[in-house]
Amino acid sequence: VQLQASGxxxxxxxxxxRLSCAASGRTFSSxxxxxxxxxxxxxxxxxxxxxxxxxxxxxxxxxxxxxxISRDNAKNTVDLQMNSLIPEDTAVYYCAASLTSGGxxxxxxxxxxxxxxxxxxxx
Length: 123
Description:
By secondary structure, the chain is mainly β. It has strands at residues 3-6, 9-12, 17-23, 32-38, 45-50, 57-59, 67-72, 77-82, 91-98, 112-113, 117-122.
């Protein structure tokens, strides 16, 4: 599986962005998908995850109520809708795929990674 993340950019605090993770391969629905982010000088952290069929979603506490994750297996995409952005959300965002059931917060569990897309939130 190859992953391509897109949709990052510069936005003012309070604004919104929608990230998209596009996957190649016919077995995309076999993979749970997670979004991670890494800010400068910080470790990569789990942001959101979704199960293989999209029936279960998982969100880091700091983004609950602001971010939503969804997937369309027919289109091989997983989206992360980010609303009410704050400067602390500034980071490079990565999507990743794993053969687990979903919601894994440990980056090492994921088998495939996209290249990352930069999100910058100005105050």
